[in-house]
Amino acid sequence: MPPDLQRGLIPRDDTTQLIVVLDTLKSRLHDAYQQWTLLDENGHIPAAPSPTMLLHHAADAQGLSHEVLHVTADFADSRHSTTRVGSTVLKYLAAAATESSQAAPHFAEAANAALLLARSSPSAEQHHSTHRMVIDHASARACLRRSSRSLSDAATELDQHLGLHRFLTSMTPQHPSPGPSPSTPSPRHR
Predict the structure, then answer these.
(1) What number of other Cβ atoms are within 10 A of residue 185's Cβ?
(2) End-to-end distance of the chain based on CA atoms, in angstroms?
(3) Average pLDDT for 57-85
């Protein structure tokens, strides 16, 4: 393989390892998006939404965001981020980091609204708090979904990069291993 082309490739092992990390994080974000619901199966708001549950969502979202940011920063620090594929992957990782970091504050705002609901009497203020809680919770979940999608896009880009590795490997001529050098006939057999 030409050295210029090889310099533009992220090593296969590094690529495979990063795909595994991204797929794991993507699944965890997607699972959180699916499982951290506020509304019941009929789309109704619970009579007494749990601020504790919403605070746990915020804390767990913060933890997921930290992991996404860590992976993004590590990749940005690597020499791989300067390649053509690496810069595309970094763009997706940065989008995932941005989205995941926005989820926790929205969950925290939803928890705050739930606390206000618990302390208020039925009024326009309660209606406003309920509305705000639902919107903040939905916004937080949307951030998790978009972050998961960006990680999926980064993993897809890396998977296509592995395809390029396979293609280039198949195009590289395989040189047979040199066998024993032909022996020169001994002087007796001449």
Answers:
(1) 8
(2) 44
(3) 94
